[in-house]
Design goal:
Synthesizes alpha-1,4-glucan chains using ADP-glucose. With about 475 residues, the protein is α/β, with parallel strands linked by helices. The chain has helices at about 20-30, 50, 105-125, 140-145, 200-205, 215-220, 230-235, 270-285, 305-315, 330-345, 355-365, 380-385, 400-405, 420-435, 440-450, 455-465; strands spanning about 1-5, 35-45, 55-65, 70-75, 85-90, 130-135, 160-165, 190-195, 195, 210, 240, 290-295, 325-330, 350, 370, 390-395, 415. It has two domains: about 1-245 and about 455-465, Glycogen Phosphorylase B (Rossmann fold, 3-Layer(aba) Sandwich); about 270-450, Rossmann fold (3-Layer(aba) Sandwich). Strands 3-4-5-2-1-6-7-10-11 form a nine-stranded mixed beta sheet, with helices on both faces. A six-stranded parallel beta sheet has the order 14-13-12-15-16-17, sandwiched between helices. The structure holds adenosine-5'-diphosphate and alpha-D-glucopyranose. Adenosine-5'-diphosphate binds next to α1, β12, β13 and α11.
Amino acid sequence: MVIYHLSTECYPIAKVGGLADVVGALPKYQNKIKGIDAKVVMPWYNKPFVHEHEFEVVFDGFIHQGSNMLQVQVMKEKTNVLGFELYMVRIPGLLDRDNPYGYQDESFQFLAFQQGILHWLCAMELKPDVLHCHDYHTGLVPFMVEHCPEFSFLQGVKTIGTIHNGEYQGMMSWSMANYMPSFDAYKWGLMDWNGFMNPLASMIKCSDAFTTVSEGYLEELFISFRGLESLVRQEFGKAYGIINGIDAEVWNPETDPMLDFNFNSKNAVAQKKKNKEKLCKEYGLNPKLPLFAFIGRFATEKGADLLPDVVWKSIKQSYGALNIMILGSGNTYIENKLKEYDYTYTNFALDLGYKEHLSHKIYASADFLLMPSRVEPCGLNQMYSMRYGTVPVVRYTGGLKDTVEDISTGGAGLNFTYPGVDDIVHAMNRALGIYNQKGIMEELIHANMNFDFAWEKSAEKYIALYNS
Ligand code: ADP
Ligand code: GLC
């Protein structure tokens, strides 16, 4: 069975968040299953990976976007170094950029990506069994495959859409239809939602099946989905929740080259302490105090706006008996407020930016990982922290609900239900109580490290879905 994963991100080439981690791992694990040939197609980016690896041009052609003629090149990485065939679509001016997102003309960028992929497959007569589309950036592919005559060669190819984040739907004005490959006008409703072209809604309508990255998140979409609630209820017959795994080859504390002191579950307590001491020294924190960490985008869905108040309140309430470290960026107001506290409190350390190495060190060093998310379709941070023996303190929502069980019901993490400052600080106080009981803390470290988040099980679930 031949599967093409279509995505704007893929680790280690271009990563903004968890989408990259999933697309960089899932195909690799699917390829370990007999009879499966999973490949990845992504845009070409001006990133170190493309300059450090050899590529060959496997396709060179043109597409039309309105009256513009765009050159499309498809480049294949020569050695399958990532454990799957990697194809990068290059379109000068649109798909040759430094980063996946943040450009004014991204509607054109993503349309061209989708059209470029389908044009290449048709021109080269490549007919996969499944086109697996990730998020709204590839959400129009199921429509295009079935309803654009230009791609009739692909008609009947099965399409799966995975919703990693329903907060972003890619809505655009109907004037963008002029830049679509031609389609029968009476089918416009398959792309419409409330008077806009909505790629995510179209993916739900037109795919053979769609998935969310946890069961908990799927249930929540029926109630809260930025306007698409009734659509997901109507289409629930083809909806599946499949939890993400983690790439245990990349995220292995025993072999992770980004750590100062590697460890396994036998020597975790001592080695984590050494990692923590080193990190605390670098950031001017007292290593004797419990360390709470937050890593992530400063977005309201992550509850990042609550962090400044959490910092001062938890430090004040505990009389300075804890440390907090935050790694992230994304909102100037939050960044400035946190900078101010970084200056004010010796118990607080801040690193603004995106730093893969530092994130690994923090997962390995912290005692607790905070995730006050308002929305969390799956969440990978909690799983990475658990694998690195760090106790997750998470809001009870989406994928966090499915992966972190509270210690009071036999789990090895801490839950709170409301994303508010008092509730978070209350959960942190519970954590402090646990931290002071060495025996329990050590048990939690081991229990978390031994959780099984391997991709194998979920990779099998996707294959079963393709087969069905
Ligand atoms: P999302 O994709 O919504 O941001 P996930 O929990 O699925 O959330 O994945 C986030 C990924 O991005 C994890 O691999 C996490 O370690 C990483 N990450 C987030 N922010 C940073 C940062 N500032 N520096 C390094 N890694 C980060
Ligand atoms: C999205 C979600 C996150 C999920 C990731 C990978 O970015 O916000 O919760 O873990 O996709 O599926």
